[in-house]
Design goal:
alpha/beta, globular, binds 4-nitrophenyl phosphate
């Protein structure tokens, strides 16, 4: 049985593609299915934002082949954990839940760090934010992998 983890943000072009690529880079793909999605549908079918592609590449990770898709209610059945980047994402995803078990699957990504309840900021309008976002997500993914091993 694979562990299925979904990363979610608003556009699925900046933060969650990075989170998908970073977590994939830290695990054995035979044991995990990792994907990402956006709550919004503005960029469906598009590759990640060129700034996310660039910061990932700088750290040796290729996310250029990812394609944007929108979150659907079926994702509650397909995934064990659904990590959201901010509280707005949390509200958008949890309003689609049909039972408490689904809601339990939804967590803020940074709840896996010392920055409990803190958000991964949206870097879309901030060219300088991408390295900071990379570091926040990387830190959380290190802890996710450590916790799964223990
Ligand atoms: P993301 O960033 O949620 O990290 O992918 C955004 C990308 C695009 C938009 C908003 C946020 N947008 O409004 O198009």
């Amino acid at each position: 049985m694979k562990t299925n983890i979904l990363m979610v943000c608003l556009g699925n072009i900046c933060r969650s593609p990075l989170a998908e690529g970073i977590l994939k880079s830290k695990v054995n793909n035979n044991s995990f299915f990792i994907d990402s999605a956006g709550t919004g549908g503005y960029h469906i079918g598009n590759p990640p934002d060129h700034r996310s592609i660039a910061v990932a590449k700088k750290h040796g990770i290729d996310i250029s082949k990812q394609k944007c898709r929108q979150f659907t209610v079926e994702d509650f059945n397909k995934f064990d954990t659904i990590y959201v980047m901010d509280i707005s994402n949390y509200n958008n995803v949890t309003k689609l839940t049909e039972d408490p078990k689904q809601k339990e699957k939804v967590k803020l990504l940074l709840s896996e760090t010392d920055l409990k309840n803190k958000e991964v900021p949206d870097p879309y309008y901030n060219d300088n934010g991408f390295e900071h976002v990379f570091q926040l997500i990387d830190n959380a993914c290190i802890n996710i992998v450590d916790n799964l091993k223990n």
